[in-house]
Design goal:
Blueprint lengths: L18 E2 L2 E2 L6 H6 L24 H14 L3 H10 L1 H7 L11 H12 L5 H12 L9 E10 L7 H16 L5 H4 L21 H22 L6 H13 L4 E3 L5 E3 L17 E4 L5 E12 L5 E8 L4 H10 L9 E3 L7 H9 L3 E3 L18 E3 L4 E3 L8 E4 L6 E5 L2 H5 L4 H4 L8 E3 L4 H10 L3 H6 L5 H14 L7 H27 L23
Helix pairs in contact: 2-18, 3-4, 6-18, 7-9, 7-10, 11-12, 17-18
Length: 538
């Protein structure tokens, strides 16, 4: 059959656009409808101190914050967000704008993000959604039990080798200072290289001698620029660029006796890896998974699985180092009593920090593997009160070695006499001295307590709940967390908060619809959209 024609709705038939063949255009359980009903969550008044009371009217910030959330929900760019607001009925519904309204220019979004960061408003959407959930009874005021974990975020800055790092750092400093003063003209002698161009110097990169010559020229130029800059009064931005140059100029090199330099073997600690984003770092999520960028650390409550806190660190920061901040940055009423984590958080130092905060940490102790197939430390019975250590053969350590400065017990040492005739010697040590020593960690008390606890039924019952956060982080990655959209830690933090906010709002609206027994019927039509609030002035 050729088919049949029937009357078609026209785009201008506003009154009949409530449904399309008896199906809702925007169902009530959709995120778009949910955002259209969230005017009490996202209010213009929340942003009032970030705007002036004179000048041209701006786009309402309550609308722009919804746009930022929709961006990550639908995974679209600023330009595509402009198009969605102009042509997509779902976005128009969510934003509370009429069909005839053109929306906004995409450049407004970058300005709005900058305004949020400038006025420290980056957490508004995240916090207001949590407050709305508390008000609805969906989130307990005291999120007693929480789960913590991290995931990596690939940096948006270009990964650069040592030559490019130094050259680009010089170029950025010279370019920035040229707006206020001509630093090049103040140098005592001409630079070896031209820093106007972004292209790499044309040398034979296969020739070690040419590479080393270039490295020395770059370092000479860097040193000359730094010495000259230090004699001037620099702005905050210029000083930051000077400091970056000083770091990248020495982090990968070592000086020779004749005054020349050569490339250093190994990787410098906390190495800057990009001149375009000097805050991103080499990171390791596991022994086999490396990345360049940042880590987003997340805390999630276990009742209704809302994200309660987010922190961002450079990629080289260990997971356990961010745990205390995830607790401290939460309001007093949301601070957890119990935290579930994976083994990465099970360090003695982190356990001590959690104990100071009266937080019970439920996570495994890092696996204790003996060297060269010998008995691990856990095979020895350590009594910290009596300050004794018993080996698997039943012998007590002959000597206790203390730190001279702190008088803290450092090592249990068994004597050669104790070890040389022991039938378990080959299973205990491969040391040439023929004796075993046991190092006592300064957090040994916390580790002992944790080892004992993880054998209890309570631990075995509670710990499996930790895996809930894996799904939540996968959801955040789905909405664009894996790749940084912006340059710099502050902007990556904003991105993480916005993604956390939209993930929380999805959960919030799902629970609200369930709570109110809403059905997926017509949303009321575009004509019923309330008029947008009057814009604030800029």
């Amino acid at each position: 059959m050729l088919g049949r024609k029937k009357d078609q709705l026209k785009f201008t038939d506003i009154d009949t656009l409530q449904t399309w063949e008896q199906k809702p255009i925007v169902p009530k359980d959709s995120i778009y409808y949910g955002l259209s009903q969230a005017n009490e969550i996202f209010k213009d008044e929340l942003f009032a101190d970030a705007y002036s009371f004179s000048g041209r009217p701006s786009i309402p910030p309550s609308r722009l914050i919804k746009v930022l959330l929709l961006q990550f929900y639908d995974k679209v760019s600023d330009r595509e967000a402009e198009n969605r607001a102009r042509y997509d009925l779902r976005w128009k519904m969510a934003l509370g704008i009429s069909i005839a309204e053109s929306g906004f220019n995409y450049s407004a979004l970058s300005r709005f993000r900058a305004r949020l960061l400038l006025h420290k408003k980056e957490r508004i959407a995240f916090e207001e959604i949590l407050e709305a959930a508390i008000a609805k009874g969906l989130l307990p005021g005291n999120c007693a039990k929480q789960i913590m974990d991290s995931t990596y975020v690939l940096g948006a800055g270009a990964l650069q080798d040592t030559y490019t790092l130094i050259r680009m750092a010089i170029r950025k400093l010279l370019k920035t200072t040229s707006k206020r003063l001509n630093l090049t003209m103040l140098l005592p002698k001409p630079l070896n290289l031209d820093y106007q161009s972004r292209t790499k110097p044309k040398i034979n990169w296969e020739d070690p001698a040419e590479r080393n010559k270039l490295l020395n020229e770059l370092c000479q130029d860097a040193l000359q620029i730094i010495e000259t800059a230090d004699k001037l009064k620099l702005t905050k931005q210029e000083q930051e660029l000077r400091d970056i140059l000083a770091t990248v100029a020495i982090q990968d090199i070592e000086q020779q006796k004749d005054g020349t330099v050569k490339m250093k073997q190994g990787v410098a600690k906390d190495r800057i890896i990009s001149a375009s984003d000097p805050e991103m770092r080499h990171g390791r999520k596991s022994s086999s998974r490396r990345f360049d960028g940042y880590k987003t650390h997340t805390a999630m409550e276990t009742d209704n699985n809302f994200i309660t806190e987010i922190e961002v660190t450079p990629g080289n920061i260990h997971d356990s180092e961010a745990a205390a901040a995830l607790v401290d940055e939460q309001p007093a009423e949301r601070k957890p009593d119990t935290v579930l984590c994976d083994m990465a958080y099970g360090t003695g130092q982190n356990r001590e920090e959690m104990e100071k905060r009266r937080v019970e940490l439920i996570c495994p102790v890092p696996t204790d593997l003996g060297r060269n197939g010998c008995f691990p430390k856990s095979a020895f019975t350590i009594d910290l009160e009596a300050q004794t250590c018993q080996c698997p053969a039943g012998k007590i350590a002959a000597e206790n070695i203390y730190d001279k400065k702190t008088n803290r017990l450092k090592v249990f040492a068994f004597s050669q006499e104790q070890c040389q005739n022991c039938p378990l010697l080959n299973q205990c040590t491969k040391s040439k001295k023929g004796r075993r020593t046991i190092t006592v960690n300064q957090y040994e008390r916390h580790l002992q307590k944790a080892r004992a606890f993880q054998q209890n039924e309570e631990f075995k019952k509670e710990y499996p709940e930790r895996c809930k956060i894996e799904n939540k982080q996968a959801e955040m990655v789905h909405h664009g967390l894996r790749q940084a959209r912006y340059i710099g830690k502050a902007k990556v933090y904003l991105q993480s908060l916005l993604i956390g906010a939209i993930v929380n709002f999805k959960r919030y609206w799902k629970l609200v619809t369930e709570q109110n027994h809403l059905k997926s019927d017509t949303c009321g039509g575009i004509t019923n959209i309330t008029k947008a609030p009057l814009p604030l002035a800029t």
